[in-house]
Amino acid sequence: xxxxxxxxxxxxxxxxxxxxxxxxxxxxxxxxxxxxxxxxxxxxxxxxxxxxxxxxxxxxxxxxxxxxxxxxxxxxxxxxxxxxxxxxxxxxxxxxxxxxxxxxxxxxxxxxxxxxxxxx
Length: 120
What we know:
The structure is a single chain. This protein has one helix at residues 2-17, and strands at residues 36-41, 50-53, 57-62, 68-75, 78-79, 85-87, 92-96, 100-105, 113-119. By secondary structure, the chain is mainly beta. Strands 2, 4, 5, 6, 8 and 9 form a 6-stranded mixed sheet that branches. The chain has a 3-stranded mixed sheet with strand order 1-3-7, with no helix packed on it. A hairpin with a 2-residue loop joins strand 4 and strand 5.
């Protein structure tokens, strides 16, 4: 009987601590709740065409071993008025952006360019 109670407690604790992934790509958080999208930087390259919902936080996670920056160039073809993000080696930076297509690059490695499409 004691083992059965212990097993039930373990199942309940595991269920309470598990990831509540609802399949929307934001680690269980709805965009309306201010979800989060993670962009992994593993090499000297940024992804192109990443899509997020307006209101979602965008978190760049750098595991490339080299420091980078995220410099926003344009949004919908117009000059972007968004602060540069520092992305230290094995660090991260987060931004929440208005709707539009954002072009960005690394101020340290100019060949690193990316685009981010914020729908909304």
